[in-house]
Specification:
By secondary structure, the protein is mainly α. The chain has one helix at residues 2-92. 88% of the residues lie in helices and 0% in strands. Residues 65-104 are annotated as: Disordered.
C-alpha cells in the first residue's frame, strides 16, 4: 500500500510543478533574490572577520618572534662576554704562560 501512495504523491507533485511552474517561479524570484543578497552580505562579513583574525595572528607571530630574538640575544650575550674575557686574559697573560716560540 505504501509504494502506491508514494507513486500517487510523486505524480501529483509532478503535475502541480508542470501546471504552476511559471507562477511559482515568478513568486519565488524575490525570495530567491533576497536569499542571495543575504548570502553575499554574510560572505562579506566573513571576509572582514577573517581579515581581522589574520591580522591579529600576524601581530601575535611578530610579537612572539621579537621576544624570541630578544631572549636569544640576551642568552648569547653572557657567553660572548665570557669568551671576550677569556680572550682578553690570554692577551694580557705574561710571556711565561705562552708556549716557547721557534725563534727563542
Amino acid at each position: 500500500m505504501f509504494p502506491f501512495g508514494l507513486a500517487v504523491g510523486f505524480v501529483a507533485g509532478a503535475a502541480t510543478a508542470v501546471l504552476f511552474a511559471p507562477q511559482i517561479a515568478q513568486q519565488a524570484r524575490p525570495v530567491a533574490k533576497a536569499a542571495v543578497k543575504a548570502a553575499l552580505a554574510a560572505l562579506h562579513e566573513v571576509q572582514v572577520r577573517g581579515a581581522e583574525v589574520a591580522e591579529a595572528a600576524e601581530d601575535l607571530y611578530a610579537e612572539a618572534k621579537a621576544e624570541v630574538n630578544q631572549e636569544t640575544a640576551e642568552a648569547a650575550s653572557p657567553d660572548a662576554a665570557t669568551q671576550d674575557e677569556a680572550t682578553r686574559a690570554a692577551a694580557q697573560a705574561p710571556e711565561a704562560n705562552r708556549p716557547p716560540s721557534a725563534a727563542a
